[in-house]
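Title: Prediction job returns without error message
Component: structure pipeline
Severity: low
Priority: P3
Assignee: unassigned

Description:
Job completed but the reporter wants confirmation the result is attached to the right record. Sequence as submitted:
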Amino acid sequence: MSNPNMTTKAGMTMTPSSPPKRQTLASLWRLRMLLVLSLLWLVPSLACGSFAPRPTPTPTPPPAPTQPEIAAGEPQVQSVEDTPIPLPDTPTPAPTATFTPTPIPGTALAAGQQARVTAPAGLNFRDAPAASGQLLGQLGTGQIVSVLEGPVSADNFTWWRLDDGQGNVGWAADGDSETEWLSPRLGEPQPVNRSPRIEDRVTVTMGAGGQLSVRVMPGTDAALVARVNTGAQFTVIAGPQSASGFTWYQIRSDDGSVEGWAADGDGTDRWLSPLE
């Protein structure tokens, strides 16, 4: 049996080490103790959670829906929401033409219609729609004229541009606050105080009981053809001719029994008056 305290050849004393088995058991024991301590620390952490503050969760929006993939060759159907709806074109309203209606003849004076002079002493005819306009003449009572233009207001009167049918054109007022001088109501034909014209229908307007002399030629010394009564009607076929201080017209009756020349008046009274 060897001595445990052996001296080497160099003179050094060596102490023998623990057996290997005893060292292994000590290492296992230390591992078990570490394991137990770890479990004792880990169990409360698992039960209560970590002591570190937890972050507040941030809500995440749901992902946007994606268009389903369309297989090759399949028709693409567009969503109704994605399809623009065309708005109908709103037509621009066409401007409406405005116009002044033309009065019915006989109801109101209007350009393009006729009128009758109703002024008792005739109607002055001027070159402008104003009382200061130059006097061109006088329209006879009962005379029918053509209205060319108007109305124009001036000098407290309403003026109309008239054509008397004898080449005279001018302005005349249609009346004052009391009397109508120019009327749209033509009525039945009546004798008018104006000079006759060829093709006029005329009537004899001598005083009561008077007769108009009809002669073969213009003049008071010409042969007498006939004497005709007031109210007799004729057609003017020629004239005027001046003779013996009078103005003469050739007239003919409807049946042709009377034809000759007659004076139309003496400057004060009209003997031969057109019917209008």
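Comment from assignee: result matches the submitted record. The radius of gyration is 67 Å.
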